[in-house]
Amino acid sequence: MRFGQLSYDLSHLLGGAVLLLSFVLLYQRRIGAVINAFATQGTLLAMAAAWAAYAQGTPGLYLTALLALAVKGVLIPLALHRLVRELNLHRTVETALGVGPSMIAGVALVGLCILVTLPATEGARLLSRETLALAMSVVLLGMLMMITRRNAISQVVGLLSLENGLILAAVGVAGMPLVVELSTAALVLMIALVAGVFAFQIRERFDTLDTGSLEEHRGEQR
Amino acid sequence: MAAVWSVLSQLLHVALALAAAPLLTGVVRWLKARMMGRRGPHPLQPLRDILKLLRKRPVLAENASAVSLAAPYLAAGAAVAAIALVPSFARGMALAPLSDLILIAGLLALGRVAMALAGMDVGSPFGGLGASREMSFAALAEPALVMAVLTLAILAGTTNLDAIGGSFRDGGLGLRVSLGLALVALLAVAIAENARIPVDNPSTHLELTMVHEAMILESSGRHLALWEYAAQLRLLLWLGLLATVFLPLGQAPAGSAPHLWIVGLGAWAVKIGGLALGLAAFESAIAKMRVFRVPEFLGAALLLGLLGAVLLFVSTGLA
Amino acid sequence: MLTALALLVGLLAALGAAAVPLARAANGGRLLHGATALAGFLLAAGGVVGLLGGPATLDLPFGPPWGPMRLALDALSSWFLLPVGLSVGCAGLFALGGAYGPVPARDLLPWPIFVAGMVLTLLAADGFTLLLGFEAMSLASWALVARDGAGAENQRAARIYLGFAGLGGLCLMLGFGLLAGGAGDVAFAALRDDPPEGARAAAVLALLLAGAGSKAGLAPLHVWLPLAHPAAPTHVSAAMSGAMTKVALYVIARFIFDLMGPAQPFWMGTPLIALGAATAVIGALRAALEEDSKVLLACSTIENVGLIAVGLGLALAFRGADLPALAALAGGAALLHALNHAVFKTLLFLVAGEVLHGALSRRLDRLGGLIHRMPVTAWAALIGAAAAASLPPLSGFASEWLLLQALLTAWRVGDIAFQMGVAAATTLAALAAALAAAAMVRFWGLVFLGRPRTPRAAGAEESTGAARIALLVPAGLTLLLGLFPGPVLDLAEPALRLVSGTAAPRAGWFAIGAGDGGARYWPVPVALLVAAAVGLAVWLVRRRAPAGVQRGPAWDCGFIAAPPHFPFGDPAGQPSAAGFAQPLRRMLGQGLLAAHETVTMPGPGETRAAVLRSGFADPALETLEGPLPRWREAAAARAERLRALSIRQCLGLTFGAVVLMLALLAWIGAR
Question: Do A129 and B318 touch (CB under 8 A)?
């Protein structure tokens, strides 16, 4: 597989698009736009999985694609939008670290991932090596988003996009066993997370979604 | 014979670009008006405006220097020179060896500096404000452009626009993430350079947010006509550049005879029309951003360009 | 040729000695400056002859106790004679135009010595001679910076400069020592035979970057430069920025391309690339924020030095990666930019001096509208500023085009970490170039356009005679170098051969190119194209539009009309230097230069005005003047405490030291 072949090109492009969406998540400051970007990322992930199912001839991955599309592309974003509406967070704009520095940090993280992944995967297939670099970048960018945001919903979105990166890695590497099962299990976990417990409880106790206000209750002085 | 064709195609290209620039601006305005439910002015209105302005005698401030007199011509000349280098319907035009992307960026910078200096000539606050913002935003837009050029240059092996268009058309480079990222960066730069929404609003004089208009606020008569015309040429240049690099289909190859130009002309009209439609739709759908959000926007474009180049290193290093 | 140049150095030194009697004569200053200017142009001519002829060596009949002083003229030193000679020549001409009556000897004496020191550094063929020249250059320029003892700012600048000069000399000395190794012979021929490897090479490079790099203005050792360069008299500022930084870059080039041998690995170039890119950005950003014209130009010098260092580093990396054609490209970019920068920066400093002379201020906020009163200066300055802003078809664009081409092809070095680093360096170089354009527009626009901000500026007058020629010569050279970079690169071919290790491709008359199959830049056709397009615009407009313009009062944008005691309008109604810098200060200054803006609003009912304060500080200078002295104090206090130790504690300390030494010994033995 190399450039110019459709099967390679499409996987490569979809992986890159998922990474691009991670950067969009970092760039966006409005919660609504963040959720929409996340929905797009989920949809792209579903397309990547579907294409991998077709190209690798593993029909099980179609299930992963379907799940990703239904849950990440539609259900979770809808639920998050609903949450935002109910909590009246439409216009919230907040970041702990500025957009510029977090983008610079993001690009540096991608560079780091490439430097780490390429030597470690010597001898593997071309596509898997590249996909692994992309997927690891998505994971790290998700983490970065979690630590640079103060808002619980943005942090949840960061966690979810981190999980997107994991699935991308699992899907991209051909012949990985239990991909479907793993992704399903991860999804269930995610849904449980998002099911509002997190957000609603904070809301109930502290009347805000700013996780910064949790710190006052840790029993230690900052 | 090929030399004759290349000279002829160059002349035709320049004449076409000079004629099409006001029309393109008019079409974009008309499309935007239609999308917003208005009837909109006739697409030839910008041309009529320019002809009307040309007949008027300009008014200059008492302390205006020769810079005010010369800058509009220099800016328009730089724009014409730059657009002469961006292929439209055919490749291999007479000036093709000159059509270097960094040179085109330099010519655009020449026009920009002329405009900034003209804005500062009288010493009015708005002129200085516009010049300061324009030069500052360009400080981020230019590296973003260079980053996009880096990706293109690695893939094509040169920064010559004509050669890049050729190798993208014939080369079977495939769909690449890096190209997508370069496209995003170039689009952002194009929006900023042409003072379009969301960076600047080309159709207002709202003082607090304007960049481009602030510099030419003092201009009138033939000077204003030249500024407007230079801006229209720049818009056509950027759309033409995007079309040449990313949509090279239909361009007549180098040294081809005139019968192939007709196909190229049609393809060019379709591509520019499509891009104009996209621009109008984009501008209708989006709101202008705050002035001090623009650096973030351009900085993001810059970093995406860099990311594109980095990912390209990965794939070229592997292949 | 070399003998003639050596004689010229001797004559310059003698001229310095003769300055004391000359200073008493009525025309002594003019004589001295005229002679130095002549020497400068002769040096440039000598450089050209040296490039066309072959290399030469010369052993002087005197020298240090262990051997003769050795001089040599090869292609690299010949090439660097060009920027030094042209810069010194123009600066001397300017000083000639400005000298009237008797001048104090301490203002005259160091100037020829300074020039002699620079030339001696370029001609040196052993470490001792090079250090002698380097130190003469440092000390003479320090004397010129410190000459104006009255101002506290000048004193501070001179103090910091002296500190950096001492550090630089020390580092270079150590570098030579390390390079010579056990043999102790510092003749270049002996050093070449025993090139350093591995850790020793890296240490030499580090010492070199601290020694010559601090003199050139490489970050983070650039902080003295914006203080010292502007503090000197104008012609010295011009020579310091135009020529002295080039001499420092020559020392770097001499070390990395010649003395350290041809077999260095490609990563040896990375420190130069990284430091150069960082230097370029910090210099350009400061140039866009500074409010004093000479400080602004000094910061722009830092930017250009950074770009040249990137070129040198790339050339070294390419040579290490066995890509000689690309090494020639990058080296050509660096050498050409060194020459171009020397010419246009000399021009700009002389313009700043002329403006200081005519309008009695260096502060942008006290100038304005000078294009009406000083037209020749204004147009010459526009040429220099446009070249510094790298606009085609001027000289700055040609060399920065080459540098960008070299950066764009750097991915051919196969290492992926290097590729990523160079991609980031490309971003920074492009950012620096664009920032420099913003800085130059701000400089020229605020000084020459608008309305006068003070009565002094309204009554400015420009000088004629030699000072005017001193502006016109570099302006013309800037145009010529911009239009014909090809022949200049061909002239540099022997130097490029030394840099890249193989014969460099010929550039030809009208184009410079990025290797086979790469892009080419054709300055003359581009200039003709732009001229034709402008002509077309003029012709088209003339056909339809009525001729002439109508004049009216400037629109004041709704401000209250200025009171009658402001005959030139309200200064606050014009963009100020700080105001013009505001977008960049907010965009980049906050992150890189700790820029700040604070608004103090009066409370309700108070009648005082609201105050907006803004400013920035270079973190490197803050470190130098803040923590470093504090650490020194802390270390002294700590040492003080040792005296109060009890005998048991003293013994314990000694015991600990012994155990530590033993452990170290064991560790070394185990390895």
Answer: yes
pTM for the model = 0.92
A89–chain C nearest CA distance, Å: 29
Nearest to A106 by CA among B155, B179, B302: B302
The predicted structure's pLDDT at residue A214: 58
For C55-71, write each residue's pLDDT tens digit: 899 988 888 887 889 99
B311 interaction partners in chain A (CB closer than 8 Å)? 16, 110, 114, 134
Contact, A144 vs A105, CB < 8 A?
yes
Question: Chain B residues with CB inside 8 Å of C520's CB?
Answer: 97, 100, 160
Q: Residue C568 carries which DSSP code?
A: T
Q: Do A114 and B304 touch (CB under 8 A)?
A: no
Do C545 and B54 form a contact (C-beta atoms < 8 A)? yes
Q: What is the dihedral of CA C460, C465, C471, C473, to 10 degrees?
A: 160
Q: Phi and psi (nearest 5°) for B290?
A: -65, 150
Element spanning C550, H or E: strand C550-552
Q: CB-based contact (8 Å) between C414 and chain B?
A: yes
Are the Cβ atoms of B172 and A4 closer than 8 angstroms? Answer: yes
Number of domains in chain B: 1
A129 contacts on C by Cβ (under 8 Å) = none
Chain C residues with CB under 8 Å of A115 CB are 416-417, 420
Q: Do residues C9 and C119 make contact, with C-beta atoms less than 8 angstroms apart?
A: yes
| Tokens describing residue C140 | 């003479």
Over residues C233-251, the mean pLDDT reads 95
Count CB pairs under 8 A between chains B and C.
279
Taking the CB of residue C103, how many other CB atoms lie within 10 A of it? 20
Q: What is the pLDDT of residues C521-536, one digit of tens each?
A: 999 999 999 999 999 9
* Residue C417: closest C-alpha in chain A: A115
CA dist B130 and B135 (Å) reads 9
Mean pLDDT along residues C6-10: 93
Where b means 16+ CB within 10 Å and e means fewer, A48-87 reads: bbbbbbebbebeebbbbbebbbebbbebbbebbbebbeeb
Q: Where are the domains of chain A?
A: 6-209
The residue segments making up the domain with residue B188 are: 2-318
C325-383 pLDDT, tens digit per residue, is 899 999 999 999 999 999 999 999 999 999 999 999 999 999 989 999 999 999 999 99
What are the residues facing C73 on neighbouring strands?
Answer: C56
Interatomic CA distance for residues C166 and A130, integer angstroms: 51
Structure tokens at A136: 């690891």
Instruction: Say which of B103, B127, B316 has its CB closest to residue C392.
Output: B103
- Closest-CA distance, C219 to chain A, in angstroms, reads 21
Give C78-100 pLDDT, tens digit per residue.
999 999 999 999 999 999 988 77
Nearest to B98 among C526, C538, C557 (CB): C526
Separation of alpha carbons A214 and A212, rounded Å = 5
- Nearest residue in C to B82, CA atom: C530
On chain C, the residues whose CB falls within 8 A of the CB of B146 are 404, 426-427, 430
- Give the pLDDT score at C436: 97
> Among A100, A101, A115, whose Cβ lies nearest the Cβ of C416?
A115
Q: Show residues of chain A in contact with C416, CB under 8 Å.
A: 114-115, 118
| Chain B interface, best mutation among C538, C587, C588, by max B CB count within 10 A | C587
Closest CA to B317 of C324, A172, A124, C419: C419
Span of B43-47, B231-235, C388-392, C455-459 with lowest mean pLDDT: C455-459
Comparing CA positions, the residue from C272, C267, C263, C262 lying closest to residue C208 is C272
More confident residue, A202 or C23: C23
